[in-house]
Amino acid sequence: MKKLILLPLAAAAFSIGACSQKAQNETGEAADAVAADVNATMGEAVDDVQAAGDRAFGAAENAADRAGQKIDNATDRAGAALERGAAKADAAADNAQREAGQELEQAGREMQR
């Protein structure tokens, strides 16, 4: 990019070889000012692109962190629900065993009469 801008300026500087030294100096100074402006603008553009990339990466990272946290929370809730379900099933099995034992005892007593 710099080379493309400096090339016409160099051509202009060569073409004014017949001009006065003052005109040549002013043209050189103008070319230097344009080159400095181009460099500054390019530097700002690079900084802007880097900053935008950093912001985009940060946003993606935050979104991934939030998604991971939601998955962790959902897994914790599912685990707790499974534990509650297992506890209820265990209690139901205990009740069924106790009731079956009571029924067998009752049947045994009735057979002894």
Determine the strand fraction and express it as a percent band: under 5%
Total strand count, please? 0
Rounded to the nearest angstrom, the radius of gyration is: 43 Å
- State the helical fraction: over 70%
Terminal-residue CA separation: 111 Å
Going by helix content, strand content and strand pairing, the class is: mainly alpha
Q: How many domains make up the coordinates?
A: 1
| Biggest sheet record | none
Large-scale geometry: rod-shaped
> How would you state the average pLDDT, rounded?
84
Characterize the structure shown.
- The chain has 113 residues and is mainly alpha-helical.
- The protein is built from 2 helices and no strands.
- The protein is rod-shaped, with a radius of gyration of 43 Å.
- The mean pLDDT is 84.
Helices and strands, with pairings:
Elements: H1 2-15, H2 21-112
Helix pairs in contact: 1-2
Please outline what is shown here.
The protein is mainly α and 113 residues long.
Give me some keywords for this one.
113 residues; 2 helices; mainly alpha; rod-shaped
